[in-house]
């Protein structure tokens, strides 16, 4: 008789009732189906389909609830908790959340998924027999993919990050296009499982895309101008930065190039919202 192990859906026989549930049997092995995991009345001797998992005390248990993922099936599952040094827990549709080990996550904690992000996973067991969520590899993700055509060039695209490496991040769009975001095409590094929005800057022969998370120039000016103006307001209407400021200082403060900073200042001055004097920039308060 096949051994009972977590992560599998098995057909077991109802053997005996106890105050807190039922014991199910496979040969000489028994496993508890807790009262909270039963979705219909049971009778001794009948066969039931159950999913096996470890409960909160680490005991092998059964549930009649169907998991979103198994060892053989993948699905998008939501991150419900983040535990530094341990990993992230995902909701697989049963009463016990399952761990994605830190060993399978990016080295930097800032690139780990946050609550509400989603990961494409199946299930696996480690050497100690513990049930874990298994992140899909590149080949598995590509089975979901749809080839992009040239018509999507320069179009906006929305998708979820499924892989992060030093050179950049990979995403799969809402319609299944695979895109790569080079490190030069972002202001910050997106995290695993995050939803991002960008624009298609190239469509390759294999139907994958290159995507930029940087705004178009006119969008960038508006965004940068708004950031600068909000910073001015937070400082009472004055800041020690102007169009001759050091590029490194501008980058450190605003995370933008000096050229972008000057364009944004130019926009604000053209709109008569700011002025510069003695190496400082001020909000221009119009007379009533």
TrEMBL record:
Regions crossing the membrane: none
Domain S1 motif: 5-65, 70-136, 152-214
InterPro entries (alphabetical): CvfB_fam, CvfB_S1_2nd, CvfB_S1_3rd, CvfB_S1_st, CvfB_WH, NA-bd_OB-fold, S1_domain, WH-like_DNA-bd_sf
One Pfam family, short name: CvfB_2nd
Similarity-based family: Belongs to the CvfB family.
PANTHER family assigned to the protein according to its UniProt record, in alphabetical order: CONSERVED VIRULENCE FACTOR B (PTHR37296)
Protein name: S1 RNA-binding domain-containing protein
The species this protein was found in: Anoxybacteroides rupiense
